[in-house]
Amino acid sequence: MRIGLLSFKPGATIRSKKLPEDIKMLRDAVKDLGHKHRIIREDKCQIYFTRTRPKLLYAGKPFPKVDVIIPRFSALSNVQLRATVLQQLEVLKIPVIQSYISVVRAKNKLRTLQLLTQKHIPVPRTIVVQRFEYLDTAIRRVGGFPIILKTPFGSLGKGVAIVESKRALHSAFDLLLTSPDFTSILIQEYVREAKGKDIRVYIVDGKILAAMERVAAKGDFRSNLAQGGIGKTVKLTKAEEKISLDAAKALNLKVAGVDILRSKEGPMVMEVNCNAGLVGITKITDIDIAKKIVKYAIKYAKSYKN
Question: Which class is 126-190 in CATH?
Answer without folding.
Answer: alpha beta
